[in-house]
Write a structure and sequence with these properties.
Layout (H helix, E strand, L loop, with lengths): L4 H13 L5 E2 H7 L9 H17 L4 E5 L7 E5 L1 H4 L8 H14 L2 H16 L25 H13 L2 E6 L8 E13 L2 E8 L4 E6 L8 E3 L13 H9 L7 E7 L4 H6 L1 E8 L2 E9 L3 H9 L5 E5 L1 H15 L4
Antiparallel strand pairs: 1-3, 2-3, 4-5, 4-8, 5-6, 6-7, 9-11, 9-12, 10-11
Organism: Mycobacterium bourgelatii
Protein name: Protein PafB
InterPro entries: CBASS_pafABC_assoc_protein, WCX_dom, WYL_dom
Length: about 325
Amino acid sequence: MPTSKVERLVNLVIALLSTRGYITAEKIRNSVAGYSESPSHEAFSRMFERDKNELRDLGIPLEVGRVSATDPTEGYRINREAYALPPVELTPDEVAAVAVATQLWESPELITATHGALLKLRAAGVDVDPEAPVEIASPVSQPGLRGSEKVLGILLSAIDSRQAVQFPHRSSRSEPYTTRTVEPWGVITEKGRWYLVGHDRDRGATRTFRLSRIGAEVTPIGSPGAVTVPEGVDLRQIVAEAIAEAPTGVQATVWVADGRGTALRRAGRSLGPRELAGRAGEVIELELSASDRVAREITGYGADAIVLEPQSLREDVLARLRAQAGEPT
């Protein structure tokens, strides 16, 4: 799959921030992902010129200078002091947005890509600063994105190229996958989860898909540029309306094993720890705004989530578990 323009620009910024000196255009072409795909030197030069102008338009302080005192070849770097932000104060919403970006940066796929980029620079003879301001954290558990990094990468590339995608999707962990064909408009986060918003060609309507429910086999289809995002569309509002539920006042209590049921814990309120059948866990209280959805969600955790009350929900979950196991209900 061709490297998207956004990914290429990010790779270029990483490279120019990670070197002590100036990098020649030739080394950038050979070492930075996205440029080696240029079919000729002329095509690379045009692409690189456009990218340099775009970085400058974004306010990134791109500098030009001699590679060394003995080598007059022209090279490029980013002025770190001018690039660094002054102290800023963030609102709670802005802090949350930065936290999401940090989680994405820490995903295993991006960590691997960044390490690969820096290794290529070193292999090309570029003096990479070990204290460069491109910090790579070790992978951590990402409740909202864990396991979906590859899916996210493909979707972002398709959105950037305005290309339709096809993927397997299931409405809950206990349901089978069905193939969906979607014109992707954007990906956003809401309440710690990641969602794709777009036009579902199979349903003929706008739809929202949680990334954790999308299978890994996401395939771009059709021609790039074929997808048009409706003018003025509000992705966040679409997701908010899709996941909103009217309160019913009916509560359910569910025992959740320690270290399990992250989504259930986030959606409910803790009533305290409790041991069940010799296993440590916690009892949480959930709003039964949509009993069918809650039952599907709990069923997906198997023995790690046990309904205590109400009895109707408990029986619903047990029936679903028996059906999965092929037992008579």
